[in-house]
Design goal:
Elements lengths: L25 E6 L3 H11 L5 E6 L1 H9 L1 H4 L4 E5 L4 H11 L6 E5 L4 H10 L3 E4 L4 H18 L4 E7 L6 H14 L4 E5 L7 H4 L8 H6 L6 H7 L1 E2 L5 E3 L15 H14 L2 E5 L9 H6 L2 E6 L3 H18 L6 E8 L7 H8 L4 E5 L2 H10 L3 H4 L4 H13 L4 H15 L1
Parallel strand pairs: 1-2, 1-3, 3-4, 4-5, 6-10, 6-11, 7-9, 7-10, 11-12, 12-13
Antiparallel strand pairs: 8-9
Helix pairs in contact: 2-4, 7-17
């Protein structure tokens, strides 16, 4: 049997027509005890590359509803009108809050059945034979609703005030720490000439950012994960630099980068962007979306002078407020004459994040090809970057220290 069994007679054979991706993934259940109902509907729904539907008999339905916290709630449920759909509806309504769209598929065109189904909470009734486009429309609306309600991930940018301040090491470590804290995280290296993120991660990239931007308009969630490289820790990243011998610096499209960031935000909790080269026209969409901008300086007059100019540009060109811009003093040392209070006064900021100078640890990490948080997690350097991580995650430094003391107490 095919979907044509249920469709009107003038419909073409749908089983041979592949469908374009929906706006986002749609996961659903097909509730029936009859394989003759499940199979043709499953085959048709599988024509979309980003749908996943699971057949549910009575036992599987009860089990699925009892384990919603582990398995997650479906986006839509199709119920066979030949089964005891009243019982199925009662089970679903008792277990599922809020209720997802439920579609009753039946050969009974009685208007009393339609009224009864709608009173029970059924969103729509497909009467066999139905128009294939009716089924398509249900999936379109489901994907649109899910996309509109998806929580957007936060964007955090790390920028050097001037060259060599260390934003790449900091952004990579912070992205790794977020991943270790079970946040789904993407790290983007925008430097097409000197980007070093893949080297810091000791993982060669599968694709470059330019490759992703070329196909971004047709990219769905599965394609996005395909162009991102996955580190052994679970961190996903993409770089811009090519190792080809004869390779010119690509021209990136600001519009394409905007779409790429929107896709990434819809599927990940945190987007960390290493913009070590500073402001560039094509990367401006990141600045319009950013929740946090970390400017990396060191205790030197040229670095602080450049940071002051950069902060002024961010405030006047992009409308940033004081609290959105954080200054990180990298390689901080008490022995250097330029003190934190002087940097605060010059940059008109109330808070500095001090990352201590630890050349030995950073050098050992780079030479061993190991991330700082993997083998040097107890150093003051990593502890300072963990505080940056908690700021990004929306937790104050004081709260994070209190939690660490609490968990230390529990372990003692």
């Amino acid at each position: 049997m095919t979907i044509n069994t249920y469709c009107q007679s003038d419909q073409v054979d749908a089983s041979t027509q592949k469908k374009p991706p929906l706006l986002t993934t749609v996961d659903g259940w097909i509730v029936s005890n009859q394989s003759d109902f499940i199979q043709p509907l499953s085959d048709y729904l599988a024509l979309w590359p980003n749908t996943s539907f699971h057949p549910m008999g009575e036992f599987e339905l009860r089990s699925g509803l009892n384990n919603l916290k582990q398995t997650g709630q479906p986006d839509v449920i199709f119920i066979d009108g030949e089964c005891d759909w009243n019982v199925a509806m009662t089970l679903i309504q008792d277990a599922m809050k809020p209720l997802c769209p439920i579609i009753l598929v039946t050969g009974n065109s009685d208007t009393n059945l339609l009224r009864q189904a709608l009173r029970k909470g059924v969103k729509d009734v497909l009467t066999i034979p139905f128009d294939e486009q009716e089924l398509d429309q249900i999936l379109f609306e489901c994907a649109e609703s899910k996309k509109a309600n998806q929580k957007q991930g936060q964007v955090s940018i790390f920028m050097n005030a001037k060259g060599g301040m260390g934003s790449s090491v900091l952004s990579t470590t912070v992205a790794h720490l977020l991943t270790l804290e079970k946040y789904s995280t993407v790290l983007i290296d925008t430097d097409a000439q000197f980007g070093c993120v893949s080297g810091l991660l000791s993982t060669p990239p599968k694709f470059l950012l330019n490759d992703a931007l070329k196909q971004v308009k047709t990219m769905d969630e599965y394609a996005l994960n395909g162009v991102l490289t996955k580190h052994s820790s679970g961190l996903r990243f993409i770089t811009s630099r090519s190792d080809a011998l004869f390779n010119s610096v690509p021209e990136f499209s600001a519009n394409a980068f905007h779409h790429f960031l929107e896709q990434s935000r819809s599927t990940h909790s945190h987007i960390i962007i290493d913009m070590s080269r500073g402001l560039e026209n094509w990367s401006s969409p990141a600045l319009t979306m950013a929740d946090h901008v970390f400017i990396v300086v060191q205790q030197s007059i040229p670095a602080i002078r450049e940071a002051a100019v950069l902060i002024k540009q961010l405030r006047h060109l992009f409308g940033y407020q004081h609290q959105q811009i954080k200054v990180i003093v990298n390689r901080y040392s008490k022995s250097i004459n330029i003190k934190p209070e002087e940097i605060k006064a010059t940059l008109h900021t109330d808070q500095l994040l001090l990352v201590p100078n630890d050349y030995t640890t950073v050098s050992a990490s780079s030479n061993l090809g190991e991330l700082l948080a993997t083998h040097f997690e107890k150093t003051q350097l990593v502890k300072a970057l963990r505080d940056v991580t908690h700021i990004i995650a929306g937790q104050s430094v004081e709260e994070s220290k209190g939690l660490r003391r609490f968990f230390t107490f529990l372990r003692s």
